[in-house]
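Notebook entry, structure prediction.
Reason for the run: the old model in the group folder had no record of what sequence produced it. Starting over properly, with the input documented here first.
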Amino acid sequence: MTEEVVFNKPKVELHVHLDGAIRVQTIFDVAERRSISLPADSVEDLKQRIILLQPTTLTGFLGKFGEYMHVVAGDEEAIKRIAYEFVEDKAKEGVIYVEVRYSPHFLANCKVDPIPWNQKEGDLSPDDVVRLVNEGLSEGEKAFDIKARSILCCMRHMPSWSMDVVELCKKYRHEGVVAVDLAGDESLNCESNPDHRRAYEEAERCGIHRTVHAGEVGPPSVVKEAVEVLKAERIGHGYRTLEDRVLYEKLLEQKMHFELCPISSKLTGACHPDFTKHPIITFREDKANYSLNTDDPLILNSTLHLDYTTAHTHMGFTEEEFKRLNICSAESCFLPAAEKKELLQRLYEAYGMMENTSF
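New structure, fully documented this time:
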């Protein structure tokens, strides 16, 4: 599908992974500087190895990170650079506020050892990573007139990291970090990994905002656990929620925010490859509280414009719906109240709306 701009107005993006939004040129440059060999002789060749051309499984999708993460992980200059360039790229897409997420431990290059008590340290500390990302985002904000905040990810298969992540959220809550997330294999629930539950309980106790990847490929019960056990304020993806009508209606009534990613959901195999049958259409028809997001634009070879074009071309989205979902996104973002009010006012003015406009 060719990329066109179907909504050339300010936008809000809430679900995008920093390590899935790196420029291929940057990977190539860092590899050259660090004398790391790549299985490609040019930027274009490397791009063809990284991007997904056809729908696969979520496991196949995640395997793409192995093509390049070893190049940037654990490198101070690279981490700050990718954060700065991320902000520039989002500004070019018309995004005026973005929440970008990442695992501090993965970017620190912490090793996952099959023997838990033999876990190896990374090239950097997770704390170093958060500081470097914050610096890159902050410099990007000043350069490109956009507001960028971050969400720190816990990983379902690494419960021993989760409390560390929440502690980093607490430490940097006034320096750009706005929430905690839980990502990874949805078959690993909180009954088998109680460390995640304890970490989220601590986050709630301290007023740290909470989102959870749930219902992307896992059953509705994962969404229910995210809401009832982890006290999630937003759901990452959540497509499978529609399979439990009682749960879906309950979350609609609660105005739960769903972070939806059209292009991603097709190429990861999370949803039917025919966009005209996509669950996002149901969310739209029911006037649900949701956002449109890119997820991992590097691997998906996409931009936010492409997600909007897809929604417009195949799912019946209109300009009014794009305005509505961006207002919903701003209302559900994790900014402090005063900053959220300012963001909403910018959107109202850009959209030619009164503040009390009702959808």
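Summary: The two ends are 30 Å apart (CA to CA).
The old model has been moved to the deprecated folder.
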